[in-house]
Structures are given as C-alpha cells and as structure tokens.
C-alpha cells in the first residue's frame, strides 16, 4: 500500500462522521459533500503524519468550511421568493440512495428549518456540542470566542430551538394530540379520521403558492376541507409537527427546505380553522421552533 493509499483509507474511515457534521451545519446533502471533499483537498496539502488526531483535525477543517458557507449565505441571503414554487419543490423529491436516506432521516426537517434561523456561530456551537459532544474549549478557537462565550452561544441556540409556547403545557399537549391526529389521517388519506378532528364549520385558507391549479384559496365546511386534505396525502408525508408562533403547527420542508407552514386554531378539541402559509414574506415573519 502506498502512502497515498494509506491516507485515503484513514480519510474514508472519517467520511461518514464528517458528512454527518456538515449536514447538520448546512442542512444540505450536496453542500455537506462539498465541504467534506474540500477537507480532503486540504488534507492533501499538509503533512498528515504530523497530525496527532486526524479525526479531530478533519472535523475542525470541515466546521471552518461550513462556517464560511453559513456566513456567505447570511451576507447574500437568498430571497425566499426565488425558491421554486410549492409544486416544484414536491416534484423535485427523488428517493435518495440508502446511505443518504439514513442521514436525512437522522435529523428532523423541523430541526433543520430552525437551525437555519440561527446565527452561524450559534449553529456551530450547538451542533458540535449538543449533537457531537465536542467540548467548548475545542469549539472556541473555531468560532473565535472564549470557551465561556461559546457555551453561551450554544445555550442561546438551544433556547431558540425550543421556542416559547404561547399556551400552558397541558393545553399545548392537547393541541398536539389534535394536530398529530390530523396529520396522521392526512398522510393516510383517511377521510373519516380527518373529519373526526375538524369542527363542522372549519375554514381552511391558503396562500396562492399552496393551492393546486384550479383550487380555491378558501374552503369552508368539514366535508370540503377533509376532501381537499385527503387529496393531498402525498404532500402530508413531507410534513412534521413544529411550534409555530408558540402554538402547535405543521411545517412542510422537503430535505429541510421550508416551503409551507400550517397554522391552526383549535377550539373545544377540534380544528376550527387553519392557514396554509407559503408566501415568502409571511414565512419569514413566523417564529418557528422544534416541538419536543
């Protein structure tokens, strides 16, 4: 085996971990792969024999690459209006290879969406410490902070991810049961089960981008709303529960990219109305958090 072959083998032994770190940092499989590949190129420009802890060195390099990407994104923040419309986003979802599927399924879509709202250094501190148990003293040099300040960054990120419920815990739990039942029924296209959680005079309002061709922006009555929901079962499979403005809601985020949010009003244990929000300006104004 040549020296180069030995280095390649050592790098490949770290690839899975590096990609997992980069994916949680960037929320994109393609960007994560690019970051890992860039780390490999940088490894080729140093004396690897002089690196005591190759895994730690590579993780640091990948993290710094990801931090640069996150800062670049923030400085030239893409306008959500430039994203594909909702139907295009759903059609673009192809079944990834098995190893990619395992990676994407290991992180909830809701978490990726909320991570994307964090400041880059907050995201790095949280991901490395809370998700990969990296000590703050090792994270601090990467983000250019002291260990104490880095710990505060992770704490701030943790608080943002958890959000602040707008209702007491017991009421939040009841609302979660209702929305969860609605989502389960919607995924199955089960008309009877959908009707069971809707108020008789329920109203569903939707932004134009979320309405199928020829569909109505506003639908009234349990039967009409349930039938429309059941017809879109394939979309519901990409949805997850989340905290939306402090209340239990649903986000639709294929591969962690937010395209749609459902905000509910629940009265007496049933859904009295809900909004399907897909307008970029409205999405930006939402306060989203992960629902424990």
TrEMBL record:
Provide the alphabetized UniProt keywords.
Sigma factor, Transcription, Transcription regulation
Entry annotated with the keyword Ribosomal protein? no
Domain (RNA polymerase sigma-70 region) spans 12-75
Matching entries from InterPro entries are given as: ECF_Sigma-70_Domain, NTF2-like_dom_sf, RNA_pol_sigma-70_dom, RNA_pol_sigma70_r2, RNA_pol_sigma70_r4_t2, RNA_pol_sigma_r2, RNA_pol_sigma_r3/r4-like, WH-like_DNA-bd_sf
Domain of life of the source: Bacteria
TM region positions: none
The residue range of the signal peptide is none
Q: Which Gene3D superfamilies match?
A: 1.10.1740.10, 3.10.450.50, Winged helix-like DNA-binding domain superfamily/Winged helix DNA-binding domain
Domain RNA polymerase sigma factor 70 region 4 type as annotated: residue spans: 109-161
* Oligomeric and partner information: Interacts transiently with the RNA polymerase catalytic core formed by RpoA, RpoB, RpoC and RpoZ (2 alpha, 1 beta, 1 beta' and 1 omega subunit) to form the RNA polymerase holoenzyme that can initiate transcription.
What NCBIfam families does its record include? Answer: sigma70-ECF
Query: Which family is this protein grouped under?
Result: Belongs to the sigma-70 factor family. ECF subfamily.
**What is the name of this protein?**
Sigma-70 family RNA polymerase sigma factor
Species for this entry: Streptomyces pulveraceus
